[in-house]
Amino acid sequence: MGDPQMTDDPFAFDDDDRTVLRPGAGSRAQAPASAAGGNRHRQQALPPLGGINPLEKAASRLLPLLLTIRHSTTHPNPDQLRNRLIQELNDFKQAAHRILNDQKKVTQASYVMCTVLDEAAMNTPWGHQANWSQHNLLATFHNEVIGGERFFALLKGLGKNPKENIDLLELMYVCLSLGYEGTYRIAQNGQATLAKVRLWLYEIISSARPTAETGLSLHWQGSGVQESKLPKLTVLWVLAAAALAASSLIYIGYRYSLGSRSDEAIAAFFQIEAEPLLINSVAPPAAPPASSSTSEQVVTLEKLLQPQIDLGLLEVDDSFNEGKVRIVSDNLFASGRTELNPELEQLVQSIAQAMDQFSGSILVTGHSDNIPIRSGRFASNLELSQARAQSVAQRMATSLRDPTRLSAEGRGSLEPIADNGSASGRARNRRVEVSIFY
């Protein structure tokens, strides 16, 4: 079977749709030998996830981080994360060199991973605020400014000789499957073109890899004895049921395995903390005491929600730049479910109406205990907490004048407020918090 050919070039796009990433002015940034001042600050490495080919195994620490970065909305220290990625990329390059023993291919593999990691970071709110594009990985390792288009130019060139480049092509296919879009993110009809590229790549990989034997047994032919008395249709049903059961068990096993590993990746991601910054500041002069008439006129989040606080339904922590409301009730959701308890919808609506009195973005955060979930719908507690946060956000949106202020994220069991060793502690940890940033 020869290399597949397509009538239209799957990579075709208009010249006006080119994407250029421009790092900051000045010389190329040097990759530090170690992050955050040395090995003593290096985060514990995640265990490899494995992969189809050796190059994917070499990237098995970077791929979970890629997925985590793409779906994150906040990060406490983007600079330290960047240093962590530089370390992992250096490790990846060393492993790739041992596997490929070809410096050109190692450079190409490094280019691919830098490009997809940069895109994931730059398309997050925190990546934009941290000016990731000014200090991106592609400029650090390859002194390049063109990212989104060059990935596909490289892919097209490698596709001309798929058997020789099969490992790298499969790695690029994984990156596309994890959401990399490159120049097609903003190109006209970009998604349709991207789908054609993925199909083209799938076909050339299939042509380069030997076709696996599809039969359940290589020696399935009978020995010529008398045919079974069981009706053929019954035998087919039994085989189909057995195959379906085996497939279901394999799917569930992989789903739970992926869920646990994604929780490990998320935990490592959020454990990257900023080192304390010492600032010598002069204490401001004491403010004159407010008169009783003035203080009575100040409207706070705590005052607006005082009836719910008195009933023990909410806890409010109101500071000068953030107001946080914690829903205390453990009955907000049924076990393993994401639908709001109808009896508590009014409580969620009250929170939205109170926060609508103030300006600023609103973040709904879902949390869980540390007992692994056993559900076909959710692979991990992180997914469950994310879905619950989105459910609360959707209900709040109906009571806000500007629903675009809302965002939602799940933290799983990463931020407990009580001991998970007791039932009461786990109940406290299963919670939803709503924060408004003034």
Summed up, the domain count is 2
The average pLDDT is: 78
CATH superfamily of the largest domain: Type IV / VI secretion system, DotU
Main-sheet strand order equals 1-2-5-3-4
* Residues in helix, %: 40-55%
Could you characterize what this model shows?
With 438 residues, the chain is α+β, with helices and mostly antiparallel strands. It has 2 domains: 15-208, Serine Threonine Protein Phosphatase 5, Tetratricopeptide repeat (Alpha Horseshoe); 297-437, OmpA-like domain (60s Ribosomal Protein L30, Chain: A, 2-Layer Sandwich), CATH 3.30.1330.60. The protein has helices spanning 54-58, 62-70, 78-100, 103-122, 125-129, 137-142, 148-158, 166-177, 190-208, 232-270, 292-297, 301-304, 306-310, 345-355, 381-397, 423-429; strands spanning 314-318, 322-327, 361-366, 406-410, 432-437. Strands 1-2-5-3-4 form a 5-stranded mixed sheet. α15 links the parallel β3 and β4 (406-410). α3 (78-100) packs antiparallel against α4, α4 runs parallel beside α8 and α14 packs across α15 (381-397). It is globular, with a radius of gyration of 27 Å. Residues 1-7, 13-51, 276-282 and 290-296 have low confidence and may be disordered.
